[in-house]
Design a protein that fits this description.
The complex is a heterotrimer of chains A (316), B (174) and C (551). In chain A, 43% of the residues are buried. With 316 residues, chain A is of the alpha/beta class. Chain A has a seven-stranded parallel β-sheet with strand order 4-2-5-1-6-7-8, with helices on both faces. Chain A has three domains: 39 residues, no CATH class; 210 residues, 3-Layer(aba) Sandwich (Rossmann fold), CATH 3.40.50; 51 residues, no CATH class. Helix content of chain A is 51%, strand content 14%. Chain B has 174 residues and is α/β, with parallel strands linked by helices. With 551 residues, chain C is α/β, with parallel strands linked by helices. Chain C has a five-stranded parallel β-sheet with strand order 1-10-9-8-7. Chain C has a five-stranded parallel β-sheet with strand order 2-3-4-5-6, covered by helices on one side. The longest helix of chain C has 23 residues. The radius of gyration of chain C is 24 Å and the shape is globular. In chain C, 53% of the residues are buried. The chains are: A alpha/beta (316), B alpha/beta (174), C alpha/beta (551). At the A-C interface, loops of A face loops of C.
Chain lengths: 316, 174, 551
């Protein structure tokens, strides 16, 4: 029987979807498929798009898809929504705004809940991006809410990062300052027909001018859109292409790829190393003992870790 | 499989219980589900032109509060759109809501398209204003359950939990 | 007097009441209406100390119309008994109308199927399974001619539940009348034409909000000159209530929509007094009897103030909130369906005590399907019993002056006004809908209501208490699936027989009008007369206006 990865490479949508589910659910066998797919990835252009809830990200994505499809490009979309911390459940509603593409075989949309744990959102998103990449999608759009650590990481691994803002959210510029300026390659002021958009543009320009010059010399442009009417979307897509070109002509692309590879590898490594030690503790049923020792201050965590490492190295 | 399902960190060598340190909250959440990270995923869809989405939205919310991941398609969906969304989203189960009387032609089409696309393992159930005499016909067409007006969200949650559990596990074991 | 009363009340609470409560506490620690208004144990004149009779209540037929919009109310003429009906084909619906008129119904109310409401012909792929299901299918003027065959349009008043395609159906109605030799200026009736609540709750929109609003105001302008006795809009809270909002939200969202229409019309250059008297409203009547009566009274007073103070309307008629009521479909249970007859009777009574101008009573079997003829007759008889036997129609606003009703009227008005102001701060109803605020509020209330039922905080007889083992209702109206084919064939025939060159010309003229700013109703009227289909006309406008999608 053909492997799941094989079937995905042959264009089996159902297989791809199943693997994504296993990734999301952390089913161990998914790793085998990911190993097999890895050599076939690295071809898609990844665009991250982030911004506060209600800023119109999904609508912008929806309209951009029209343009990409007209150009004959295939598109993958990962839409990330938060999991309710109280119930562990989630309503993933971004799809509503993109659902008209559901019958287009060149578009694959996947909603993802943060599941609020393991710091692994960036990891599973990255894995799902890899599956879409292996499916042969030319462009992958990753949509996340807000500017949490995970979101920043996700957006950071994209080739082009778009930050969407809307006028009238009050402390706009505060939000901009809080870490989002650095990650945006392109800025969008959506719902620009609203009051306050001029001021927002001025403020944003000022903040951008004051921030550090980027090493690639890229000067993040600001786009004004009214996504619901499709206004300004063409310009935005053109802006993405300009950024792509600038990336490719500089050494930054190479650097980005290296950073991303490193981050992924380190994350996997960390999990692997840690799980090895934990497995050991579990096998010997040592948890209670270790915790007692720590609580009673008979040993410190630093020495304990050193000791376990030394033993591990000796074993090999 | 259950050995793995109990636990919290994902690695090449298996999954391990990590209800400690920075993973504490997470493991707790996982343990509550009973199956660690396997969450029930549901698509709630409104086929046809009917815009009455009160029921669909209430159910979506109730399922979320029961810890499920719910993808809501919005109104005016064709059977093709619904089936494709179900497949792309990798859901366990699809809930269709219709109050306009179009269920006899639209519900079976969703089932049929899922089947054509090799996704007959995705359970389809329905609800709305559906005359009793139509229920056996819909069941014959592959809609597994029909909920009538007055059904409590608890009943629907229970139905999903009971029916997805078995298929959910066997799928991941396959 | 009031100081004495206060003392007396305190005394009563401490003695007579306390004695009983200390032994047997009340059923619940607190009692709330569906709008979460805390209900007091007892209302007294103390609750109405601020009230100024002349200012707050006044007299029937005079602002602020709290007690009613006509000086004689039902002593002069009973409300219009208007059962919403329509199913399958124009032929079958025509028969039902004749039956209803024969039974003593005094106005017609047309239900259209969903393809007709959303601008698709019966042969459109998206119409699959929907043709003739929730109402009558109308593709061309031909269907409309059949629908009103033998019904003199100068004698009946007709209400049409139609929104995004309202201009087309109104044009068809005018054209049918013309064929009967009836001039448009004598036609009486209503088109719902309330597109805003479609985005908020009901979902039969086609175009984006701004384009939709243009069509709405074009209709206002056209009717002001040509169909003067027509109600050009029925601003509807009904569907938002059915979608789950509370009584207070119903008043607030409906009047906010009303404000948006008045503003749009004024912006389109109309004088407020030239169209405001043709605005009608449409509310739901739910279970909480006193709250519902108070709701209608509060809505009337609030609208009157809005029209006078905000829009500076000069004529009293411009400030009148005239409304149609339908009993609450969502309150009907599939369990023990005969109980629905009782629910509907109470709701209908509340609507009458609230001063409605017309009324639809739901039928007991509507949790299952469209009603059968028998069920519709009972529903209509319910209204007739209220009208002729109960005596409540023999005096004006009989509950006026009740301490409880007046207090609730005040509270609903106050709470609704708070909501309206909040919506205004967001930039008005259109913005509040675009941002999903109103939809979110409705969904939240719906969820809370459902939870209250499931936790038995709210008892619904037969549903979560007093259940019995029962067989589901089987004797219900069935729509023959063959009618889809029949309707398609009829459409094909019309398309073959009409002058297709003329149709194309008319559609081209319409397109040009849509691209420009001229009134769209005249070119639509010309197009329907050539038997251009509803789908063709809608598509022509879609090309220019684009389509709205759920956000």
């Amino acid at each position: 029987m053909r492997s799941l990865a094989r079937r995905i490479l042959e264009g089996d949508i159902r297989a791809a979807s199943r693997l994504m589910r296993d990734i999301d659910d952390r089913i161990p066998s998914a790793l085998d498929a990911l190993k097999e797919l890895y050599p076939q990835t690295g071809r898609a252009y990844i665009i991250g798009i982030t911004g506060p809830p209600g800023s119109g990200k999904s609508t912008i994505v929806d309209k951009m898809v029209d343009i990409f499809r007209k150009e004959g490009k295939t598109v993958g979309i990962v839409a990330v929504d938060p999991t309710s911390p109280f119930t562990g459940g989630a309503i993933l509603g971004d799809r509503i705004r993109m659902q008209r593409h559901a019958t287009d075989e060149g578009v694959f949309i996947r909603s993802l809940a943060t599941r609020g744990c393991l710091g692994g959102l960036s990891r599973s998103t990255q894995d799902i991006i890899n599956v879409m990449d292996a499916m042969g999608k030319d462009i992958i759009l990753v949509e996340t809410v807000g500017v949490g650590q995970d979101e920043v990481e996700i957006v950071n691994t994209a080739h082009t990062s778009i930050v969407v803002l809307i006028p009238g959210l009050g402390d706009d510029i505060q939000a901009i300052k809080a870490g989002i300026i650095e990650i945006g390659d392109l800025f969008v002021i959506n719902k620009c027909e609203r009051e306050g958009s001029e001021k927002m543009e001025r403020d944003l320009k000022m903040v951008l001018e004051m921030s550090h010059k980027r090493e690639d010399g890229w000067d993040p442009p600001i786009f004004k859109t009214e996504a619901i009417l499709g206004k300004g979307i063409f310009e935005l897509v053109y802006g993405i292409y300009r950024h792509k070109q600038a990336l490719e002509q500089s050494h930054v692309l190479e650097k980005k790829l290296r950073e991303r590879a490193k981050a992924t590898f380190l994350e996997v490594l960390e999990t692997e190393v840690m799980s090895r030690f934990i497995q050991k503790i579990e096998k010997k049923d040592q948890w209670d003992h270790i915790l007692d020792e720590l609580i009673k201050r008979r040993i410190d965590p630093y020495s304990l870790a050193e000791k376990m490492m030394a033993e591990e190295l000796k074993d090999h | 499989m259950f050995r793995y399902l109990k636990i919290g960190v994902w690695s090449l060598s298996g999954i391990f219980d990590l209800d400690l340190g920075r993973y504490a909250l997470c493991s707790m959440l996982l343990a509550q589900g009973g199956f660690m990270n396997r969450k029930i995923r549901v698509l709630i869809a409104k086929p046809g032109l009917d815009g009455h989405d009160r029921g669909a939205k209430v159910i979506a919310r109730a399922l979320r509060d029961a810890g499920m991941e719910v993808i809501y398609t919005g109104i005016r969906q064709t059977p093709e759109q619904i089936a494709n969304a179900a497949i792309q989203e990798g859901v366990d189960i699809v809930g269709l809501s219709s109050l306009s009387g179009a269920h006899m032609s639209l519900f079976p089409k969703v089932v049929q398209i899922l089947k054509e696309k090799g996704a007959e393992d995705i359970i389809v159930f329905g609800g709305g204003i559906i005359p009793v005499d139509d229920i056996p016909l819909l069941k014959q067409a592959g809609i597994r359950e029909i909920f009538q007006p007055g059904t409590s969200t608890e009943d629907i949650i229970q139905y999903i939990q009971e029916n997805v559990k078995t298929t959910g596990i066997s799928k991941s074991e396959a | 007097m009031s100081k004495n009363l206060q003392e007396e009340l305190n005394r009563w609470e401490k003695t007579t009441l306390q004695k009983v409560i200390s032994k047997s506490p009340e059923r619940q620690p607190s009692f709330q209406t569906t709008s979460h208004i805390e209900m007091k144990r007892l209302y007294t004149p103390l609750d109405l100390q601020e009230m100024d009779y002349c200012e707050d209540l006044g007299f029937p037929g005079e602002p602020p119309f709290t007690r009613g919009v006509q000086p004689t109310m039902y002593r002069g003429r009973l409300w219009t008994m208007r059962q919403y009906a329509g199913f399958a084909t124009a032929e079958e619906t025509n028969k039902r109308y004749k039956f209803l008129l024969q039974q003593g119904q005094t106005g017609l109310s047309v239900a259209f199927d969903l393809p007709t409401q959303i601008g698709y012909d019966s042969d459109h792929p998206l119409a699959d399974g929907e043709v003739g299901k929730v109402g009558v299918a109308i593709d061309t003027l031909k269907d409309m001619e059949i629908l009103f065959d033998g019904i003199p349009l100068d004698k009946v008043s007709t209400s049409m539940t139609i929104n995004s395609t309202a201009a087309i159906l109104l044009a068809m109605y005018i054209a049918v009348a013309e064929k009967q030799g009836v001039k448009s200026n004598v036609l009486q009736g209503t088109i719902q034409n309330d597109i805003l609540k479609e985005y908020a709750a009901r979902g039969t929109y086609i175009f984006p909000p701004l384009e939709s609003m243009r069509i709405v105001t074009d209709i206002f302008a056209f009717c002001k000159d040509h169909v003067q006795r027509w109600n050009t809009i029925s601003i509807s809270g009904y569907h938002m209530r059915e979608a789950g909002c509370t009584a207070v939200q119903e008043v607030a969202f409906t009047l906010s929509d009303g404000i948006a229409y008045v503003e749009a019309a004024i912006r389109a250059g109309l004088d407020v007094d030239s169209f405001a008297s043709r605005l009608a409203f449409f509310f739901c009547c739910h279970n909480n009897f006193i709250e519902e009566v108070a709701k209608f009274r509060a809505a009337r007073r609030l609208w009157s103030k809005i029209m006078k103070e905000r829009f500076k309307a000069k004529k009293d008629e411009s400030c009148m909130l005239r409304f149609h009521t339908q009993t609450a479909g969502c309150s009907l249970t599939a369990q023990q369906p005969d109980n629905n007859v009782v629910r509907v009777a109470f709701q209908a009574l509340a609507a009458v005590l609230g001063g409605t101008q017309s009324l639809h009573t739901n039928s007991r079997d509507e949790a299952y399907a469209l009603p059968t003829e028998d069920s519709v007759r009972i529903a209509l008889r319910t209204q007739q019993i209220i009208a002729y036997e109960s005596g409540v129609a023999d005096m004006i606003d009989p509950l006026g002056g009740s301490y409880a009703v007046e207090t609730l009227t005040n509270e609903i008005e106050k709470k609704a006004l708070e909501y309206i102001e909040k919506i205004e701060a967001m930039g008005g109803a259109i913005k509040a809908i675009e941002s999903g605020y109103i939809q979110g509020e409705i969904a939240e209330s719906a969820y809370q209501y459902q939870k209250e039922i499931e936790t038995k905080k709210r008892i619904i007889v037969g549903l979560n208490q007093f259940q019995v083992e029962e067989q589901p209702l089987r004797d219900i109206l069935k729509i023959n699936p063959e009618i889809e084919r029949y309707q398609k064939e009829k459409l094909a025939r019309v398309k073959k027989e009409r002058d297709n060159i003329k149709v194309k010309q008319c559609l081209a003229v319409l397109k040009k009008a849509a691209q420009g700013t001229e009134n769209l109703v005249p070119p639509i009227l010309e197009a329907v007369k050539t038997y251009a289909t509803l789908g063709e006309i809608s598509d022509t406008l879609r090309e220019v206006f684009g389509e709205y999608r759920e956000q």
